[in-house]
Each structure stands twice: as structure tokens, then as C-alpha cells.
Amino acid sequence: ILIDRDLYDQHLSGVFLDNREIGVLAGRYLAEQPEQKLLIIGGPADSEITLTRTAGIVAALQGSGREIHIINGDYDFTSQESEVRAYLAQPENRPDYIIGLNGIITLGAIAICHEMGLYQQVKFFSIDEPPRAGAYGLHIPGVYHDTQKLGEIAAELLFSAINSPRGELPVRREFFTGSLLNR
Questions:
Q1: Rounded to whole angstroms, how far apart are CA atoms 70 and 23?
Q2: Tens digits of per-residue pLDDT, 140-171?
Q3: Nearest to 26 by CA among 2, 68, 54
Q4: d(CA 143, CA 140)
Q5: How far is residue 159's CA from residue 157's CA, in Å, rounded to a whole number?
């Protein structure tokens, strides 16, 4: 039973995040906000997660007139940090919203904005909850995944596989989006 990552062309059962729909949920939320300049910070430009989340956001914002800039790097925010700093250092680039495609990226962007004195001037949106954000009083809107629910679905699939007669196990694929939280 696979959890969150697929092995292509293997046709195995599992529970997976629906990253395009996650992006669409994020984009719909952002479309309801008055802010116009958006900076999306994602993982590797060729990562399926980055591509599908970004595509969902952009699709939901299509026709809204938003200015969208995208910076890609890695998922632990080390490779894009200098590019984000340089981008934010230019006053004409300053976004109204920064969207982190995972919690670590969002946390990295928040740290940079604090260091640069921009934190009060920018809003943040995160896909995945930034680690320990609540402990620091940070209430960031985003699409958050209930990892316990993800685990419960995976366990159901596992027990179903265990209890199936040998050779009669159908492939079951469950997709999970999480919830939009406006904190």
C-alpha cells in the first residue's frame, strides 16, 4: 500500500494527495482575496507535485488579472533562498501574497520576510501546515492535510489487502485533498 507517492506503471493500491485539486482549492481562495501580486515558491520545476499544484493555482486564477511570479528550488527551501531574497529586495517585485507549495517553503519565506522587515507587508498562504507555526502564534491560511486521516485510509487499504483471498486483490487508489483553512 503506497502513501502519498506513486510508483509509476506499477498499478499498486494506495492513498495519494490530489495535488492538482489542492492547487485549485488554493487558487480559489486566492481569487477571493483582493491582493493582485502573487509569488508562488515551489519545489523543483520538474517535480510532479510542484507542476500540478502550480497548474491548479494558475487555472483557478485564470482571467482574474493577477500578476503571478514563480520561483522554484527544492522542498527544504535552501536552493531558492537567495533568489527569493533577491526578488523581494526589489521594491517593484514585492508581492501581496506569498504562496509556499509546502510548509517548509512557507516557513522559509516567512523567515526571510521577517529578516527583511517585510513581514507586515505580505500575506502568506501555505500548502501543508508550516512546522510548529501554531506554537509561534502563526495562523496561516492554507490547504492542510489531515495526516491521521491519510493514515486511516492507508490502514483500511492495508487491512482490506490482508483480508482478501490470495490473488483476488483489486487495485484501490484513494485520492485525498485536505481542507482549506482560513486561519
A1: 14
A2: 999 998 888 888 988 988 888 888 877 666 67
A3: 54
A4: 10
A5: 6
